Amino acid sequence: MKIILGPTGAIGELPLITKSDYRYQFEFRNEDGTPKDFPEGSELYYLVGAEEDRWDFVTEGSLAAIHTESTRADLIKDESPFWLLFVNGQENDVLFYGNVKRYEP
């Protein structure tokens, strides 16, 4: 899954593998492709499923990483909605959204 952060949200799927932790990491970049630190106090997180379970990323410098245990991820049903949100002060941007795609190992 490739996500490019921009002014409009991308549409796609969030792949979840049954009995497997969800891990993902990416780097925040300027338009010219150079690394850019996440603004201090900003938040990056998924809202997943009908109950909008919140999965937070940990940011450090320009890197963002997430690790969600399989016991939690396995509660999300196939085709459930998700949103990736970036919150910075008063700005609340949906960067990526769509539906969960569940895979069996």
The helicity comes to under 10%
What's the tally of helices? Answer: 1
**Uncertain segments:** none
Overall pLDDT confidence: 90
What is the CATH first-level class name?
A: Mainly Beta
Arrangement of strands in the largest sheet: 1-8-7-3-4
The overall strand count is: 8
Q: In what range is the share of β-strand residues?
A: over 45%
Q: What's the CATH architecture?
A: Sandwich
Q: What letter string, H or E per element, gives the SSE order? A: EEEEEEHEE
Write a structural description:
- The chain has 105 residues and is mainly beta.
- The chain has a single domain (10-103), classed as Immunoglobulins (Immunoglobulin-like), CATH 2.60.40.
- Helices cover 4% and strands 51% of the residues.
- It is built from 1 helix and 8 strands, in the order ββββββαββ.
- It has one helix at 70-73, and strands at 10-17, 22-27, 43-48, 53-56, 58-60, 63-68, 81-88, 91-103.
- The strands form 2 sheets. The chain has a 5-stranded mixed beta sheet with strand order 1-8-7-3-4, with no helix packed on it. It has a 3-stranded antiparallel beta sheet with strand order 2-6-5.
- It is globular, with a radius of gyration of 14 Å.
Q: Which key phrases capture this entry?
A:
51% strand; single chain; globular; Immunoglobulin-like; 4% helix; 8 strands
